[in-house]
Amino acid sequence: MKLAVLAPIAWRTPPEKYGPWEQVASSVAEGMVAAGLDVTLFASGDSITNGTLATAIKKPYGDDPKADVKVNECLHISHLMERAGEFDLIHNHYDFLPLTYSKLISTPMVTTIHGFSSPLIIPVYQKYNDHTSYVSISNSDRNSTLKYIATVYNGIDTTQFNFNDNPQQYLLFFGRIHPHKGTLEAIQIAKKAGRQIVIAGLIQDQQYWSERIRPLIDDEQVKYIGNCDPVKRNEVLGQAAALLHPIGFDEPFGLSVAEAMCCGTPVIAFNRGAMPELIIDGKTGYLVTDIDEAVDAIGNLQRLERADCRTHAEKSFSQHKMTGDYLKVYDQVLRR
């Protein structure tokens, strides 16, 4: 099979630091190469793949302040669509925009919906309900008006994450510095529990960072270590006593949750979105509803076996499992 994987171009594929959609697109592409498919990855020019790299944009717009995002998107997506006839199947990881080409080409398209940035984009998905195949990344993130062929959980390369059964005592916040991700709440939880917290992630909301988070950074109880590369990510996740994930929105998945568990690190998360699908409450972490319950959960971390976290991540959220699940989706689509 000749497969085209369309990645976003905000960041390199795979990302050097932040870039969850690019990370999943890379995992899919590399998993399919390993499975024997002829894969062409459409991504930024600095991207890395064991398949064939096709690019119309040399530099990700996230690294190019002079870039016009819409221009880059148009050049990138049209580059694939003008070559669509070369492929048996297109796997779209670029949200709703590529759908608008789907009736202009004969190649079938699978679209992984990585979440809905706004209700305003849903009519585009509705328009192409009967013409393309939608995959959700969790059951919780499904929209009732759309038709899905499957739910496929995001998969990670488990070899990039070392199991650590002898962690340090700090708590960890790992993710975008943004109100939705609960950075402030994570700090409040750690302070109330009397524990040190390490914060790692991209500063996405500068005002939130400047006004709410940076004043709390004292480099003792509250430390900020920046946006981590894969080596640092593995280290900081594995050495943490627990990952705090007090999200303020219904998160579609949560790669850092799967990555933490892969290191053996349990997760204490607000019980929203896909968290009940990722975390086994009382075994690989705790699902809580507020700051006080999170503090109580920290006191119960000793009841959890870190090996259970690793086993769960390998079984449910590995690249190998995701590849197998997507191969079943591809087969269904091509049989149509």
Give a structural overview.
This protein is 33% helix and 16% strand. The protein is of the alpha/beta class and 336 residues long. The chain has two domains: 2-155 and 318-335, Glycogen Phosphorylase B (Rossmann fold, 3-Layer(aba) Sandwich); 158-316, Glycogen Phosphorylase B (Rossmann fold, 3-Layer(aba) Sandwich). A seven-stranded parallel sheet has the order 3-2-1-4-5-6-7, sandwiched between helices. Strands 10-9-8-11-12-13 form a six-stranded parallel sheet, sandwiched between helices. β12 (267-270), α8 and β13 (285-288) form a beta-alpha-beta unit. α1 (20-34) packs across α11, α4 (183-193) packs across α9 and α7 (255-262) crosses α10 (306-316). The model has no long low-confidence stretch (mean pLDDT 97).
**CATH topology of the largest domain, anyone?**
Rossmann fold
Element pattern in H and E: EHEEHEEHEEEHEHEHEHEHEHHH
Radius of gyration: 20 Å
Please, what is the CATH homologous superfamily of the largest domain? Glycogen Phosphorylase B
Offer a quick outline of the entry:
By secondary structure, the protein is α/β, with parallel strands linked by helices. The protein contains eleven helices and 13 strands. A seven-stranded parallel beta sheet has the order 3-2-1-4-5-6-7, with helices on both faces.
